[in-house]
Design goal:
single chain; 179 residues; mainly alpha; Arc Repressor Mutant, subunit A; 3 domains; three-stranded antiparallel sheet; 7 helices
Length: 179
């Protein structure tokens, strides 16, 4: 398949001027027909890495164009609350708390219920608001446990797994709002 100078340059990741130079130095075989250069696709020196990079760019362009044109792509997997790392981590913390934890347990329960609401909210801003409130409630639960002098595994779970996972959900939604 014969390519124009511009097509060959695009495939190689070079400018047309650089491709003309390579032709002049006989590094790329080409034919001039009617004042235009044509290069055989098979004779282009394209590395495997460059080829993979080009394929990634094409895939990204297809994704963006589908988004802009609202062309349906492959069906998205519908996720449930149980698919959220934050919910599973929070649920483990909740079940690890003893009944005596009282208000801290109530706050953690509220936090988990807010995640459920956020998961099934439609608007990104609404989802984010639910997740922010869930994180605040989880932080209150942690504070109550610390004030009570509790040093047990559910506290560690709260501080090292659940609250950071909620932060990740919020950051992901903030990134979606900017895009």
């Amino acid at each position: 398949m014969n390519l124009s100078l511009a097509e060959a340059a695009r495939l190689m990741g070079k400018t047309t001027r650089q491709v003309r130079y390579l032709i002049a130095k006989e590094k790329i075989p080409a034919q001039k027909v009617g004042g235009r250069w044509f290069i055989d696709r098979e004779s282009l020196p394209i590395s495997k890495g460059a080829e993979r990079a080009r394929e990634r760019k094409v895939a990204k362009a297809v994704h963006i164009s589908r988004d802009v044109l609202r062309v349906p792509g492959p069906p998205r997997k519908h996720y449930t609350v149980l698919d959220l790392k934050a919910f599973t981590a929070g649920r483990a913390c909740y079940h690890g708390l003893k009944e005596e934890a009282g208000e801290a347990r109530v706050q953690l329960r509220e936090s988990l219920l807010l995640i459920c609401c956020g998961c099934h909210a439609f608007q990104t801003t609404e989802k984010r608001a639910y997740f922010v409130r869930a994180r605040e409630s989880a932080c209150r639960a942690l504070g109550l446990l610390l004030l009570a002098g509790a040093i047990e595994p559910p506290m560690d779970c709260l501080e090292k797994e659940y609250i950071p996972a909620l932060g990740g959900l919020i950051r992901r939604l903030e990134g979606r709002q900017r895009a």
